[in-house]
Amino acid sequence: MSLNFVLLYGATVFIASIIPGPSMLLALTHGMRFGARRAIASALGNLAVTLVQAMISIAGLGTILIASESAFQIIKYFGAAYLVFMGVCVFLSPNMSFTPNGTGQAPPKISLSKMFSQAAMVTAGNPKAIVFFTAIFPQFINPSASYLPQSCMLLSIGSIIAFGCFMLYAICGQKLVFLFSQATIGKYINRVIGGTFVGAGVGLAVSNK
């Protein structure tokens, strides 16, 4: 695999990953509510499921999922329902308080394992990632070269980019908290976040394949 192909693949995955979506919305939210350092647990949850989705695509199972309308819809509606559920929970949670330096504190602070599982569930509920991987991997695989090393390289590059994009959103979320803490919207931040999650869930449910 040439350097040009690697750079092109990296740029493609970066653009697809950095575009706002359910996972990036969660990264922003966890960065705001719990700080970027704790959001590493969320990033690992996102990464774990992303790797599974990518491996499913590499194994050829993604093609089966794409062909199965019912399986695709089940996963999509599961993801949409979970986003709505999360949105309602955040909407009804106690108002976020702020420390003197503008760091958000959301009582009670949830465990790292729960942050990991939330990110994993949100990522797993978006079957479009499998569609993306199934479409992109064949474009960067050289059929005349060994398949396994190429697949490992693509997975490694994609993992680094996905983790980096998630953490970038988390860091931005932590920075945004400082602005919200000094504005009237600060005391309504849970309602804003919760409403956004509900909107994302509804949008995913009504979106076309």
Radius of gyration: 18 Å
Most strands sheet: 2 strands, antiparallel
Structural class by secondary-structure content: mainly alpha
Distance between the ends: 31 Å
Oligomeric state of the chains?
single chain
| Total number of beta strands | 2
Q: Helical stretch count?
A: 9
Could you list the spans in which at least 5 consecutive residues all have pLDDT below 50?
100-107
Explain what this protein looks like in three dimensions.
The protein contains nine helices and two strands, in the order H-H-H-H-H-E-E-H-H-H-H. The chain has one domain. It is mainly α and about 210 residues long. The two termini are about 30 Å apart. Residues about 100-105 have low confidence and may be disordered. The protein has a two-stranded antiparallel ribbon. About 75% of the residues lie in helices and about 0% in strands. The chain has helices at about 5-20, 20-35, 40-60, 60-65, 70-90, 110-125, 130-135, 145-180, 190-205, and strands spanning about 95-100, 105.
Features:
209 residues, mainly alpha, two-stranded antiparallel ribbon, 9 helices, single chain, 2 strands, globular
Outline:
Helices cover 74% and strands 2% of the residues. By secondary structure, the chain is mainly alpha-helical. The protein has a two-stranded antiparallel sheet with strand order 1-2.
